[in-house]
Write a structure and sequence with these properties.
The chain is mainly beta. The chain is 8% helix and 53% strand.
C-alpha cells in the first residue's frame, strides 16, 4: 500500500488507468453509490469557496461513459460524461496495484479496476 499526501502523486498513478474499466464506490454519511465506467481521462479543477461548503476547494473529474447502480438492482447512465469527487486540503490518498482509496471529511471513495 502506498500513501501520499499530494494530489499530484495520486493523479500521476491514476493516469496509468486511462482506457481501463473501473468501479467507483462512495460511502458518504448514510449514502453508498457504485459507478462503473470506462476511464477516458482524469482532470481537476480549483473551486471558489461555496456558501454551503458542499464543494471542496478542488474537484477530481473521472471522465468516461458510465453507469450508476440503482436501489432497484438496475443501472442508469451517468447524467454527465464524468464522475466528480470533491477534494480537500486534508484528503488522504492511498493506492495499490488495483485500487485507489480517497478519504475526505465527507466520505470515503474506492476506485478499483474491473
Amino acid at each position: 500500500m502506498t500513501i501520499s499526501n499530494t494530489m499530484e502523486d495520486f493523479h500521476q498513478h491514476l493516469q496509468t488507468w486511462i482506457g481501463t474499466d473501473i468501479c467507483i464506490t462512495k460511502h458518504e454519511l448514510r449514502d453508498q453509490d457504485a459507478v462503473s465506467m470506462q476511464l477516458h481521462d482524469v482532470s481537476y479543477s480549483v473551486n471558489p469557496m461555496s456558501i454551503d461548503g458542499y464543494m471542496g476547494p478542488y474537484t477530481l473529474y473521472l471522465h468516461g461513459k458510465g453507469y450508476v447502480s440503482t436501489d432497484m438492482q438496475g443501472t442508469e447512465p451517468l447524467p454527465t460524461p464524468y464522475y466528480e469527487i470533491p477534494l480537500e486540503e486534508t484528503t488522504h490518498y492511498e493506492w495499490n496495484d488495483d485500487r485507489f482509496f480517497l478519504k475526505t471529511a465527507r466520505g470515503d471513495y474506492t476506485i478499483a479496476r474491473k
